[in-house]
Specification:
- It is globular, with a radius of gyration of 21 Å.
- Strand 7, helix 8 and strand 8 form a beta-alpha-beta unit.
- The protein has a 6-stranded mixed β-sheet with strand order 4-5-15-10-11-14, sandwiched between helices. A 5-stranded parallel β-sheet has the order 9-6-7-8-16, with helices on both faces.
- The chain contains 22 helices and 16 strands.
- It is of the alpha/beta class and 494 residues long.
């Protein structure tokens, strides 16, 4: 290795390629960078003159020291090409002088997960080669909607891989479900879980932690890895678009170089907002991250009180990708703040055993220096969609609407006038039933018909990838109890 930046650690240090391959540490913990690289003002100024690919190379290369500059360039070019329908890859849309939407949904599945999952397969195959791994890899995914389709799209027919996606049966939109169930590729499988996202996620974590299962699969020539944000290779590309948004604000004359920005991030598993926090640690001038939740507001309570308590009713909402009560990436933040494996392990143990933990007043204070938090109901989310469409002519999906509403609430309460980015995580056409309902329209029709109705209502064309869902054959239809997920894995990897 050429330096420390490519070294990742859980309880022991390993190289970046091995961290990408493993996904999770052997004991179920998460890898973190041993050292966070820095971006100085001169480099940031230079990035303002680059396109999205150039900005990606600058950030990613600083963490992947085992890769040559040419290898990084090849991976980035493969990830961000004509598979995106906007040349800017992650454009900013301004609705007023101080507010812009960072649109992360111009990739093939129309959700922000494409920003990482169009890269991860290339990073994974390169890492396998660097580590001399001869076994084939099965990507095992639990999804609340968007990760599943994005991972399927990224890994479909990639040599030496298979991908298996579990999703909560009643916890995704009609369009999200259809996207997954019609996925092409000879190496893919999709299966519903009888439960919510936390059931699917905990089932996947149990499978990853089963040493006997791992041995059986290894004998068959397979090992498991992850495409969720628990995999550092998934989280790393997400850091880039925070830098890119900042550069675009500077280039548009909305802020002076070096001036701070706020980011409002619709948040479920804490991966997207954590990527932004890593960007701040690298030197990006950020004032506050506003953690925006729906009625599953466990993160709002944690940030405001220091108590994480998943012992509460689970709400199925119109922003399903945020219907999460166990936010896995919070573990990484706690480690970065405390520097203590022991403290974090104690918290995770308490969460598993009692569903609750509490951090010290000192840790809480450190978190609140960087984060504010709020939540809104489904009714407030719909009202925000209608308001912004009526007043600004900008159409939001349900998750983005949560981000915008919570930002508005934060501004009103704090009087913080710092210019702000709303992280827009999905095309409104992925949630056309809820968006149409918010606009006062009838939604008693299949999801694909509602796409056409939303086009007619707004005069906006749906992304081609969503318009093309109509008539595609459904390939998958299974549903299992959480306890039977392991059996699905074993059958798939015979």
């Amino acid at each position: 290795m050429r330096g420390q930046h490519g070294v990742f650690q859980h309880k022991k240090r390993i190289g970046a390629p091995q961290a990408v391959i493993n996904g999770l540490a052997p004991d179920g913990g998460l890898y973190v960078p041993a050292k966070i690289p820095t971006i100085g003002r001169e480099t940031l100024a230079a990035m303002c003159r680059m396109d999205y690919r150039g900005r990606s190379e600058q950030i990613i290369g600083r963490y992947l020291s085992e890769y040559t500059a040419e290898e990084i360039r090849t991976i980035v070019a493969a990830a961000y090409g004509d598979n995106f329908n906007d040349a800017a890859i992650a454009p900013i849309r301004f609705i007023d002088p101080a507010t812009g939407f960072l649109e992360l949904w111009h990739g093939p599945t129309c959700a922000f997960k494409d920003m990482a999952l169009q890269m991860l397969p290339h990073l994974m195959t390169s890492s396998l080669e660097k580590c001399g791994e001869n076994r084939k890899v099965c990507i095992l995914v639990a999804t609340s909607g968007d990760t599943g389709k994005a991972a399927l799209e990224g890994f479909a027919d990639v040599p030496g891989t298979k991908i298996l996606v579990f999703y909560p049966r009643d916890g995704v939109s009609d369009v999200q479900r259809l996207q997954m169930l019609t996925q092409t590729g000879e190496n893919v499988l999709v299966c519903a879980v009888d439960g919510n996202f936390d059931d699917a996620q905990s089932g996947v974590k149990t499978i990853f932690g089963d040493k006997a299962l791992a041995e059986q699969l290894s004998e068959r020539g397979w090992f498991l890895s992850s495409a969720n944000s628990i995999n550092w290779g998934r989280l790393l590309p997400q850091i880039v678009y925070y830098f890119s948004a900042y550069c675009d604000f500077v280039n548009a004359g909305r802020i002076a170089p070096g001036a701070p920005l706020n980011f409002s991030v619709p948040t479920g598993n804490f991966g997207n907002i954590l990527a932004g926090w890593y960007a701040k640690r690298m030197g990006l001038p950020v004032n506050r991250f506003i953690c925006a939740s729906n009625e599953n507001n466990v993160l709002t309570e944690f940030i405001t009180t220091g108590v994480y308590d998943r012992n509460r009713p689970f709400h199925t909402t119109i922003s399903p990708s945020m219907d999460i009560l166990i936010s896995s990436n919070l573990e990484r933040l706690l480690y970065a703040i405390t520097g203590s494996d022991v403290q974090v392990a104690d918290c995770m143990r308490a969460l598993k055993e009692s569903g609750r933990y509490e951090v010290s007043a000192q840790v809480q204070e450190m978190i609140r220096k960087d984060f504010a938090a709020g939540f809104c109901s489904d009714g407030e989310t719909k009202a925000e969609i209608a308001k912004v469409w009526s007043e600004k002519g900008y159409l939001m999906d349900t998750h983005t609407a949560v981000g915008h509403k919570v930002l508005a609430d934060y501004r009103a309460a704090s009087k913080d006038e710092t210019p702000a980015v709303v992280v827009s995580t999905a095309s409104p056409f992925k949630f056309c039933d809820s968006v149409l309902s918010a606009l006062g329209e009838d939604v008693s029709a299949p999801g694909t018909e509602l796409i056409r109705r939303l086009e007619t209502k707004t005069g906006i064309s749906a992304p081609a990838a969503l318009r093309g869902l109509a008539g595609r054959p459904v390939r998958f239809g299974g549903c299992v109890k959480k306890e039977a997920m392991q059996d699905i894995v074993m059958d798939f990897l015979r």
